[in-house]
Write a structure and sequence with these properties.
Elements (H helix, E strand, L loop, with lengths): L15 H4 L2 E4 L15 H5 L2 H7 L3 E4 L3 E2 L11 E5 L6 H13 L3 E6 L9 H7 L11 E2 L18 E4 L4 E4 L14 H16 L4 E4 L24 H4 L5 H13 L7 E5 L5 H8 L8 E3 L19 H17 L4 E2 L9 H5 L5 H13 L4 E5 L20 H12 L4 H11 L36 H6 L4 H14 L1 H5 L1 E5 L6 E7 L6 E7 L6 E3 L10 E5 L10 E3 L5 E6 L1
Parallel strand pairs: 1-2, 1-13, 2-5, 5-9, 9-10, 10-11, 12-13
Antiparallel strand pairs: 3-4, 6-8, 7-8, 14-15, 15-16, 16-20, 17-19, 18-20
Helix pairs in contact: 6-8, 9-10, 12-16
The structure holds 1-deoxynojirimycin (NOJ).
Length: about 575
């Protein structure tokens, strides 16, 4: 059923969150103030001036709520409390104040597809307390599981609960039972939580796997021959999703709906659906995090696949088409769920050049750039020498299932080092001292082995500072609407090494040309005849003496440049 209001959004309407650059903080790994080896909120407070120097407009803080930390906070046991590992509610309030004092907004993660199995609702539900009886999705099964759905981190989506004598559904780990959104009381509880945080003065949410909240009626078996997780056709973009989104905006956001931002993490989403879920005035999402470019280099979660720049272009261009029609997207190449983009799409051997090239490339699209901590100094993937160095539940599950099937760690090590989420979760490298200046204690996860050379202090002193380049790029976005609102046109789509973008905005007196060399070769960019490069000026470049006229230019390894064309 979908009888929600379908009034379309106005695609080119100005919004603060379109103009913003968001900085993602994974607090566990950002900065530890108390020496317990785990980053915390006072540690973030210590670094607000750093964020201000970088020039970002908004911080997305991944979950700091009370949690047993099975999935590092994406298993919430109390939505209205700060986990003591991260500090107190007073610390959190101080953080909000300090950010706001610098005109930096704050968005919080909202994890409401599931809770922790330690949440009081689940504890009561598993005891069969009448009021909480169907807060979760419980089923009996005569034989085997209630259906054949597969969980995201491996295994079935069902776990048998001895106490209640039934199976419960969990799309992630067994410790993350899915809430039953069909139950209006559950939805009310969620909307109350949303309003409660908004009343505290935050500026929006990043909504975790929010397109999984509506499951197909009857929870039918999935088609095992379909690509992707078995059952996903019954739990992705489900039948009541729009209804819930509209209700969430109405009941949860209330009169803040117009001024906050809602960033929906939408699993398994394509551009058409993204347009559908952000393109309506009544709906609760302003933009959708998408993953297609993050799947480019792998066949399933752990198997590497060769990728070509032309594939990346095709994916991004399709998403840019959806943006042109009224969708909006975060532009990112790294997150707490992905390996480091620099290792994936660039080359740590060319750290400065490829980190800055990738930044230029991303910021060159239409959407909101999301900078993940450490990206702005060129942090890259790390070594995981032994299984003992793995922390992420997904990587550990993968290793354990391979081990049980007879594999040695050496057989899977390369896959894990390439794709593990732990790559982006190693401590932020602040300086070349002990534990990279992240903690005085023993870090919860090993520090990247290159911290003595790759760290904030060294980078900021360097003549070739990645941080400084990001700062200039962010400042450029603030001063140039073409970068924010301009139409996107992909040039030389078939070129295997050069990614070139032309941005135009009717009311501006100039266009932008963005050139990126995605490799260590020296290809030549030939501007299409339609492009008038006569009066071109370079506004930003990662190499000295970039060509003055980009009509025909040989690019150096990982060279990137932005030109204004008049
Ligand atoms: C997406 C989050 O980003 C990820 O870290 C988490 O494991 C899953 N959702 C489950 O909440």
């Amino acid at each position: 059923m979908d009888d929600a209001d379908t009034t379309p959004v106005v695609p080119d309407r100005r919004e603060w969150w379109k103009e913003a650059v968001v900085y993602q903080i994974y607090p566990r790994s950002f900065n530890d103030s108390d020496g317990d080896g785990i980053g915390d909120i006072p540690g973030v407070v210590e670094k607000v001036d750093y964020l201000d120097d970088l020039g970002v407009d908004c911080v997305w803080l991944t979950p700091v709520y009370e949690s047993p930390q099975v999935d590092n906070g994406y298993d919430v046991s109390d939505y209205r409390a700060i986990d003591p590992t991260y500090g107190s509610m007073d610390d959190w309030e101080r953080l909000l104040e300090e950010l706001h004092a610098r005109d930096i907004r704050l968005i919080m993660d909202l994890v409401v597809n599931h809770t922790s199995d330690q949440h009081v609702w689940f504890r009561r539900s598993r005891q069969g307390e009448a009021e909480y009886d169907d807060y979760y999705i419980w089923r009996e099964a005569e034989e085997g599981y209630p259906n054949n759905w597969e969980a995201h981190f491996g295994g079935p989506t069902w776990t048998y609960d001895e106490e209640r004598g039934e199976y419960y559904l969990h799309l992630f780990t067994p410790e993350q039972p899915d809430l039953n959104w069909e139950n209006p009381r559950v939805r009310e509880e969620i909307y109350d939580i949303v309003s409660w945080w908004l009343e505290r003065g935050i500026d929006g949410f990043r909504l975790d796997v929010i397109n999984l909240i509506s499951k197909a009626e009857g929870l039918p078996d999935g088609d095992p021959d379909r690509e992707g997780l078995t059952g996903s056709e019954h739990f992705v973009n489900g039948p009541r999703m729009h209804e819930y989104f509209a209700e969430l905006a109405r009941e949860g956001y209330g009169d803040r709906a117009g001024d906050i931002v809602a960033v929906g993490e939408c699993a398994h989403i394509d551009p058409e659906t993204a347009l559908d879920v952000t393109g309506r005035e009544s709906d609760a999402l302003d933009m959708t995090i998408f993953f297609e470019h993050m799947e480019l280099d792998r066949d399933d979660r752990w198997d590497e696949r060769e990728w070509a720049l032309t594939d990346l272009k095709a994916i991004m261009a399709r998403w840019q088409d959806a943006v042109a029609e009224g969708a909006w997207v975060p532009l990112y190449h790294t997150s707490h769920d992905q390996p480091r983009g620099l290792s994936r799409f660039g080359d740590p051997e060319y750290r400065y050049e490829s980190a800055t090239m990738l930044a230029t490339w991303l910021h060159g699209h239409r959407g909101t750039p999301f900078v993940y901590q450490g990206e702005e100094i060129g942090m890259s993937n790390v070594d995981f020498e032994t299984p003992a160095s793995l922390r992420d539940v997904w990587a550990r599950n993968y290793w354990e299932s391979e081990r049980d099937a007879g594999a040695e760690y050496a057989d899977v090590r390369a896959d894990i080092e390439r794709f593990s989420r732990d790559n982006a979760r190693t401590p932020m490298q602040w300086d070349g001292g002990d534990h990279a200046g992240f903690t005085d204690g023993e870090p919860w996860i090993p520090v990247g082995e290159d911290y003595e050379t790759v760290n904030v202090a060294a980078d900021r002193e360097s003549e070739r500072s990645v941080f400084e380049y990001y700062r200039e790029l962010i400042a450029l976005r603030e001063s140039d609407d073409v970068l924010v609102y301009g139409d996107f046109d992909l040039l030389v789509p078939d070129h295997e090494e050069i990614y070139a973008i032309h941005r135009t905005l009717a009311e501006a007196d100039h266009d932008l040309l963005i050139l990126c060399n995605f490799g260590d070769g020296t290809p030549t960019f030939e501007a299409p005849e339609s492009l008038d490069t006569d009066d071109a000026t370079v506004v930003l470049a990662n190499r000295e003496d970039p060509a003055a006229d980009p009509a025909a230019v040989e690019l150096r390894p990982y060279e990137a440049a932005i030109y204004r064309l008049f």
